[in-house]
Amino acid sequence: MDKTLHIVGGGMAGAEAAWQAAEAGIDVVLHEMRPKVETFAHQTGNLAEMVCSNSFRSDDDEQNAVGLLHWEMRAANGLIMTSADQHKLPAGGALAVDRDAFSDWITNRLQGHPKVTVALGEITALPDGGHWIFATGPLTSSDLGAAIAQETGKDALAFFDAIAPIVYFDSIDMSRAWMQSRYDKGETEEERTAYLNCPMDKDQYEAFIDALLSADKTEFHEGETAGYFDGCLPIEVMAERGRETLRHGPMKPVGLTNPHQPEIKAHAVVQLRRDNKLGTLFNIVGFQTKMKYGAQTDVFRMIPGLENAKFARLGGIHRNTFLNSPTLLDSQMRLRSRPHIRFAGQITGVEGYVESAAMGLVAGRMAAAEILGHEIAPPPPTTAMGALITHITGGAEAKTFQPMNVNFGLFPPLEGVKGGRRGRKDRYKAYTDRAKIDMADWLRAQPLPA
């Protein structure tokens, strides 16, 4: 049998899977349809392009589940985390990256790897043999999506993902805005001033909410339903849930002091985060939207400091499909009906850049081991990677399965630790301490480079 591993999709999961398998000595063909076949969300033909936020969220590996996932991927020689660390931007306690430099570096590393061939072109059917990983993500092409749906015999599950706009820094009025991370969080001055803040008083906030609610929105096609992943809700959908929702969400005013008016407490604050190393681009944090383009410019220019804003990219919304993985995939992430095919990334029902890349990391290692004549067990469920895999391959309820970010609620409970809010800090530290030990043991036990 051919020992080559074919990976379909050059996003976060596919790029990471290709790297892990190639580093294990396996010949890899990475199939990517872009730029020959474009998508709504992608702007380039690069591998591992970041299409929404430029943030990998918290980097705290002692108190945060996604920070723990960062730690585990670094321990496993993860390509995505290596690039993220090399191209990081100030973001308080979060890990944000220069998106173009990040994907350029990954593209060059994979194209230059002696074991990797990047094949440009669309795969439209499921293969009958060989070794395959499908990591086509939320924008799986219609032909391939139809082939997957036909094979699984299940109706496609779908929700909608929204993208936040990006603003040119030199168009922001800094006489009204200021730089500060919430609660001055960060170890350096650069980290403590990582976010750009635009304050609103009560009247400005109420007018902004009115404009959001009345703005023209993108309509869905016949047969589509507006099911959203809660971690990526459009701001106008949040506003529809209550006029105070945004003020207690992405526009919360806490932990900030306006140096232009230090005696006045803002009613709400819009935050922007640096989107590139040069600091010429800033994305509006939490402002995913399905408003039409004309409405976006009108509404967002109501924000103090953004009255003359120029947009490098406006927001948008796109369909996001995923498998009912608990019924379709085994513990090795293989399609039960065609075990020579694995799935990885967002299409399996994980949500987020890091979660998607982590599933690619594990799938790449599992596929490489199988080709070499071994089988490696999934990561222990006490680890962040293992908790995610357990969730998508049987831990979740199939009837209500929805995309999931990594969180401590997916971890097996600990004995002898205090529950409730007061015991949270010690409990989270105990979760991460246990996970690091178990992850290190899992890596050492593999017949692959760690």
From TrEMBL:
<comment type="function">
    <text>Catalyzes the folate-dependent formation of 5-methyl-uridine at position 54 (M-5-U54) in all tRNAs.</text>
</comment>
<dbReference type="InterPro" id="IPR040131">
    <property type="entry name" value="MnmG_N"/>
</dbReference>
<comment type="similarity">
    <text>Belongs to the MnmG family. TrmFO subfamily.</text>
</comment>
<dbReference type="InterPro" id="IPR002218">
    <property type="entry name" value="MnmG-rel"/>
</dbReference>
<feature type="binding site">
    <location>
        <begin position="9"/>
        <end position="14"/>
    </location>
    <ligand>
        <name>FAD</name>
    </ligand>
</feature>
<keyword id="KW-0963">Cytoplasm</keyword>
<dbReference type="GO" id="GO:0005829">
    <property type="term" value="C:cytosol"/>
</dbReference>
<dbReference type="InterPro" id="IPR020595">
    <property type="entry name" value="MnmG-rel_CS"/>
</dbReference>
<protein>
    <recommendedName>
        <fullName>Methylenetetrahydrofolate--tRNA-(uracil-5-)-methyltransferase TrmFO</fullName>
        <ecNumber>2.1.1.74</ecNumber>
    </recommendedName>
</protein>
<dbReference type="InterPro" id="IPR004417">
    <property type="entry name" value="TrmFO"/>
</dbReference>
<dbReference type="InterPro" id="IPR036188">
    <property type="entry name" value="FAD/NAD-bd_sf"/>
</dbReference>
<dbReference type="GO" id="GO:0002098">
    <property type="term" value="P:tRNA wobble uridine modification"/>
</dbReference>
<keyword id="KW-0808">Transferase</keyword>
<keyword id="KW-0520">NAD</keyword>
<comment type="function">
    <text>NAD-binding protein involved in the addition of a carboxymethylaminomethyl (cmnm) group at the wobble position (U34) of certain tRNAs, forming tRNA-cmnm(5)s(2)U34.</text>
</comment>
<feature type="domain" description="MnmG N-terminal">
    <location>
        <begin position="5"/>
        <end position="374"/>
    </location>
</feature>
<dbReference type="Pfam" id="PF01134">
    <property type="entry name" value="GIDA"/>
</dbReference>
<dbReference type="GO" id="GO:0050660">
    <property type="term" value="F:flavin adenine dinucleotide binding"/>
</dbReference>
<keyword id="KW-0274">FAD</keyword>
<keyword id="KW-0285">Flavoprotein</keyword>
<dbReference type="GO" id="GO:0047151">
    <property type="term" value="F:tRNA (uracil(54)-C5)-methyltransferase activity, 5,10-methylenetetrahydrofolate-dependent"/>
</dbReference>
<keyword id="KW-0521">NADP</keyword>
<keyword id="KW-0819">tRNA processing</keyword>
<keyword id="KW-0489">Methyltransferase</keyword>
<dbReference type="GO" id="GO:0030488">
    <property type="term" value="P:tRNA methylation"/>
</dbReference>
